Amino acid sequence: MDLHKGLSMRLLALNVVGAVLVLAGVGLVAMTARGLLNYRQAASRHGGEVIELGADAQPQAGQHGFMARVVGTPRVVEAPRDAEFNLRVDSPVLVRHVEMFQWREIDIGGNVHYELDWVDRPVDASHFVNPRGHMNPGSFPLSGKQFDAGLVQMGGFRLGPVLIHALPGSARVTPDSAALPENLAASFSRYHDYLVTSAHPGDPRLGDVRVSWDEVPLQQVTIVGRLDGDRLVAAADAGDGKGYSVQVGDVSLLNMFPDLPVPPEFALTWRILAVLLATLGAYVLLSTQRRRRDGLLALGLGALVVGSVASVLWLGGGAPNLGGWLAVTLAGLLLVGWRLRRPD
């Protein structure tokens, strides 16, 4: 009687251990899948899952359409040029600013006064409270403009216009008055970082014009964008309405997108471990059956159970993962069928 009771308790314990191992395998694969799915769902708001290319990345087959993180200093291949002033700089973007010395109306608590200052747009003095003696010249002889580089690269990738315009920073350009075309050299002279029409640059007069330029400096940046062949562009279909990020320095992906959850590490290892746990659990369960100490059958059952659960979780979550788990499930099913048909 005691022997029978002891055997029953042993079988019960083995069944409990086996079931716990199978459930641990299922739970592990479910946890890994959920972590990956949550990460991909969050990443889709910014254009999709990001692959790490790091520094000096080059285009490779199979990358098209992915979001990528690249690090480096942009290289200007075709520099921008302000042809009117014969000014060319090694920068992704060159911006010309034009200002005129004009009257401005200052109203402080109902007290109106007027002062001359540099303003980057025509000031219509006809709307002044007291326009007499404060009229401005009118239209500018020149306009401000932006000049983009024809080709900017990060590693082996060409940057799209949106990413070029997103490059951060601004630095003043010192113009070279000796390079001015003859028609402008007669009117402009250099004063500090400006070209001015003033006869006495330190004492400008009404209607004088000054021109200056800013450039985007070349510095280390981190860019996240979509791979389009050998181009890095903004993802037009991103849920955040932006589809890219550009920051100064070597910035991690999670710092660029703080809303992203931390993706599971060693996902493949956890998946393999999940199948092995379920296999061990199935083997323990089979060991309670007199004729079923079959490692291959246990492996088939482990793959079948874990693969089935993972396939359900990945429905609509990504064809590669779903296809992989369906293959594992089918392999497990075939292995189980073969071992069950095998005579003992």
Question: Secondary-structure map with pairings?
Answer:
Layout: H1 2-44, E1 50-55, E2 67-72, E3 75-78, E4 81-82, E5 87-88, E6 93-108, E7 111-119, E8 145-148, E9 151-154, E10 157-159, H2 161-166, E11 171-173, H3 182-185, E12 189-191, E13 194-196, E14 209-215, E15 221-228, E16 231-233, E17 245-248, H4 253-256, H5 267-287, H6 295-313, H7 319-341
Parallel strand pairs: 1-2, 10-16
Antiparallel strand pairs: 2-15, 3-9, 4-5, 6-7, 6-8, 6-14, 9-10, 11-14, 12-13, 13-14, 15-16, 15-17
Helix pairs in contact: 1-5, 1-6, 5-6, 6-7
CA-based gyration radius: 35 Å
Q: In terms of per-residue confidence, which ranges show pLDDT below 50 for 5 or more consecutive residues?
A: none
| Total number of distinct structural domains | 3
Helix-strand pattern, N to C? HEEEEEEEEEEHEHEEEEEEHHHH
Helix fraction, binned, reads: 25-40%
Largest sheet: 8 strands, mixed
Average pLDDT level: 90
Percentage beta strand: 25-35%
* Discrete helix count: 7
Short description:
This is TMEM43 family protein. With 344 residues, this protein is α+β, with helices and mostly antiparallel strands.
Give your account of this protein's structure.
This is TMEM43 family protein. It comes from Rhodanobacter ginsengisoli. Keywords: Endoplasmic reticulum, Membrane, Transmembrane, Transmembrane helix. It holds the Pfam family TMEM43. The chain crosses the membrane at residues 12-31, 268-286, 295-316, 322-340. The protein has 344 residues and is of the alpha+beta class. The chain folds into three domains: 2-42 and 264-341, no CATH class; 46-72 and 220-256, no CATH class; 75-215, no CATH class. It has seven helices and 17 strands. The protein has helices spanning 2-44, 161-166, 182-185, 253-256, 267-287, 295-313, 319-341, and strands spanning 50-55, 67-72, 75-78, 81-82, 87-88, 93-108, 111-119, 145-148, 151-154, 157-159, 171-173, 189-191, 194-196, 209-215, 221-228, 231-233, 245-248. Strands 1, 2, 3, 9, 10, 15, 16 and 17 form an eight-stranded mixed β-sheet that branches. Strands 6, 7, 8, 11, 12, 13 and 14 form a seven-stranded antiparallel β-sheet that branches. A hairpin with a 4-residue loop joins strand 4 (81-82) and strand 5. Helix 6 (295-313) runs antiparallel to helix 7. It is elongated, with a radius of gyration of 35 Å. The mean pLDDT is 90.
